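During the reporting period the student researcher (J.K.) took over the structure-prediction task from the postdoctoral fellow and processed the backlog of single-chain submissions. One of the processed entries is reproduced below for the supervisory committee.
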Amino acid sequence: MTKKAIISVSDKEGIIEFSQCLVTLGYSIYSTGGTLSLLEKNKIAVQSIKSLTKFPEILNGRVKTLHPQVHGGILADRAIKDHMKTCDEYSIELIDLVVVNLYPFEKTVAKKDVTIAEAIENIDIGGPTMIRAAAKNFKHVGVVTSIKDYQDIQKELVSNKGSLSKQTKQSLAVKAFKLIAEYDISIADYFNKIGEKKSTALPQYLTMALEKLTDLRYGENPHQQAAIYKRRKENGNNITQLHGKALSYNNYLDIDAAIEIVSEFELPGAVIIKHTNPCGAAIDDSLDIAYKRAYEADSISAFGSIVGLNRVVDLKTAKELSQTFIEVIIAPAFDKDAKDLLSKKVNIRLIETNVSDNNRNDNQVVFRDINGAVLIQTSDNKKVSAKMFNCVTKEAPSKKQMNDLEFAFCLVKYIKSNAILIVKDGKTIGIGAGQMSRVDSVNIALEKAGKNAKGAVMASDAFFPFKDSIELCVKYGIKAIVQPGGSKRDQESIDACNANNVSMVFTGSRHFKH
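J.K. obtained the following structure tokens:
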């Protein structure tokens, strides 16, 4: 019995060669619209879908293959006698192979100034229906939806005299169902976006398709499995590894934290990350000095760290970096001399990525699983600026202090709450992270800073509920404080500052990080 194939593709790449192979193997081909014209033009034996359905394409091509002669032939289970009897009764020809790719909906809606009418006309109906039908009946029908599969399918067809193995057909069906799911998600996302763009970044329904990039050795601990996935339409983690062994789950978390932090800096800046928290950060007119100052902030914690930089790494900076053990270095680029020097270290990973502030998306959402449900929030991308600071004390910060306060509050939102950060001359000198009591975080940060705290500034990610933290700061010589404000006892903290000639500014913006 002659095998039959339906071919209807939006992207015509490779379809001529594929069709020629089918004809050589004795297939009868049915086709539609532009695909039919292309095959006829290239003198490939092909019949119009109309010759199968005895019905013309209608509604400007919206209805071509939605017909019992098409879907009966695709969906008929050859092992069920009643199915075969029905096919005989209505002269339905059995279809063995469906080759379809879809209208380019995502490309269409990605265009600038695309209209809803254009988007609607690029919602494929017949294609997904045929793909779904063929995938459902994969025991008997092969369904090819990706140009990338053409060559492998041709080879197998030639080897097996026109047939595909059950394993191949099932594998193709999985790809087909995935394609349809992603296609429907892209349509739902588009209409969600245009329907709710004036209201919220968190619509009533969220759809997501993820694609695995690679398995990881393990998760946070060796007994946990882990992998990294990319979101549909995204480029993945947008990093390029130049040197070193594979990245771990924890490496990826630290890299993400480093990129977020150095993206905040306008001057050349460096951050040293341990367990997603910065243990040292600094800005300067030159990158090598910025890194050196960040390292000096906590040289003990810097051992085995992840380092983020926001400028191209030159040889001078590379020499500074090479003096201690670093797990990962992330930067926009490494010049040749820097790369050659750092690559001599076997255990270091060199990562290039875009750390530009221009890449930040105010509507980016963050997901967190909580035992069967998912918490979703927009990213804490609120830009920190001294312009938003409101001085609440008699003494106002100096210009130099104001610069340090801005730098400190910019950084504190990346530290686990309760978070306290002490800064002096554009450099962190003490960090207290993740304590259950805010005063404990203050104690840790001040002890880290030691004598250097004299004349420094301090930032807190949330308000001070009592004046005890202020009194500790006074003992160490802190001269200016930035905090969100908003406590019922704010005046108590203000009075403590006024009594000790400490300036304090409120931001009105809290930055908890759990």
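The committee noted the following: The mean pLDDT is 91.
J.K. will present the remaining backlog at the next meeting.
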